[in-house]
User: What shape does this take?
Amino acid sequence: MNKLKPLNTTYRYRAVQDALRQYILENHLHPGDRLPSEMELAAQLNVSRNPIREAIKGLEALGLVEVRVGLGVFVRAASIDDILTNVAYSLAVDGRSVAELYEIRQRLELSYAREAVKQLTDETLAQIEQQVAEMERLHHAGQDYHEPDLALHRLLFQQVGNATLLKLFDVFAGIYSSTRHLFEDEPPTAKADDIQNHRDLLEALRQRDPDLVVERLKRTYTPLAHLTDGTPPKTSEAPEMNRSTLP
Assistant: This one.
């Protein structure tokens, strides 16, 4: 079995975490396999036991290991839910991260859009129609409509057969909930434009036209340059400039 190499103590617990990850990979450890004891790890890495404890706590928080009291530290089966939750937490700390994640969401949606149209059922289309109607109702009532908006986008892709993609939509929803203050300065016309953009998207879905769906899906996205360079969001002046209120 490959052994751990001594670390410079100035690297502290992050270096220990990296070393433990590498140890698990190099030795092909599986869920349920036990790691060396805290004392053995400290001796092999040439560090005190404090950074070992901190590193293990960090790996446990990430869902990579499990501490069993009185038994030791064991490799844990990685869960995509744990990974996405930690990614969401790490990204939702500033405007730039939100804007970059939003760009990822756009690219994912557009890459799956044509497949989504092929797999679109009458039942799903009816559910999307309900979400658009709910968005309109909330908008006219002067209320926030981000929940049916997110639900609409999630519904569109639920038939493409990629469960992880749907989990990512849940991550997007969670990040939006914690960063909504970043979108408070949108111009008054933006939401009205956004509602119309989603009506247009719905009409394209009714036609089952993949190219038209892609074109109109693009219009539902918000330019988020103001989150990265400090410029205020622009009021839309043409259909291609319209935007959504979702991150």
Observations:
- Confidence is low (pLDDT under 50) at residues 231-247.
- The chain is about 60% helix and 5% strand.
- The chain has two domains: 9-78, 82-241.
